[in-house]
Amino acid sequence: MVLLRHIIQxxxxxNEAVTLDLPFNNQQDISSPTNRKQPxxxxxxxxxxxxxxxxxxxxxxxxxxxxxxxxxVSVTVQPSSHKEHALNxxxxxxxLKGAPFHLxxxxxxxxxxxxxxxxxxxxxxxxxxxxxxxxxxxxxxxAVSVAVVRALCDFYQYPLTSDQLYYLTNQAExxxxxxxxxxxxxxxxxxxxxxxxxxxxxxxxxxxxxAYLVVADSGITGQTKxxxxxxxxxxxxxxxxxxxxxxxxxxxxxxxxxxxKANDADQLGRLFTYNHYYLAHLNVxxxxxxxxxxxxxxxxALGAKMTGGGLGGCVxxxxxxxxxxxxxxxxxxxxxAQQTWLLNMKKI
Length: 348
Prior knowledge:
4-stranded antiparallel beta sheet; Ribosomal Protein S5, domain 2; alpha+beta; Alpha-Beta Plaits; single chain; mevalonate kinase activity; 11 strands; lipid metabolism; 2 domains
């Protein structure tokens, strides 16, 4: 409880005229409400795709991520007819305090947000509609937390700042994954690509790459928390080898950023392949993901790799044209992918 009080005091100070060492310099969050009273609070967010740099980003190496606007999250908050907070989502309907363990991050972010805005007595109904596939490495938990915080602040007409949103969501992410780079939180609340490093201010940019990204859901649940813990264990057991892998992946990310800026899709595709090779050697891929990657290569993709935490989840591939991308998409489906999406990189 002492720690919680310190967190709340910190968050309230974020709303004062102070400068914090956080990515947004205390600017008002773009979704913050107007002065118009609303009977229903609303919050939105979306998923993300890690283009390059999974796992190494946790250890302060760079990563590139894209907003995944095809997977939105919408949350509404309104007064509850019951005597306590209630939650309604695809996984659970009932009292918030009775939510299953894998939703404890939502409990935590609701408690922190209501404490911050000093509104802890009114029972609320929180309704979550998420199109981000859960446990696929697409930032589902962060996207839901961002939308929940925005909806709560909208309901109470609280002028949420970007710093507060970032901090609150990352606290929930620590519950969901034990360790967090912060990149999921950033991507869930922004609509530009980002090159990110934990120790540095994020750089948002537009891709404008003449290529298509094909995203494939393997249909197999990813295991981000386990994968992050497994990499941490390997780092303790063989620090020299794992540090070399991390550093090399970090170099690939820098090269990938330069390739995007140079509109060099061929080079970016090659870097996809290199990145996947090293992730596989970190033992965070899986036979199913490797088979999807091989299917993309066989179908003529410029490159392919797993994306997200791994041990299941999704694969991405790069193609020069939409026609090529559709061919890769079909190859993914033939290999057993549950769902595919096409992203025009020129529009990101």
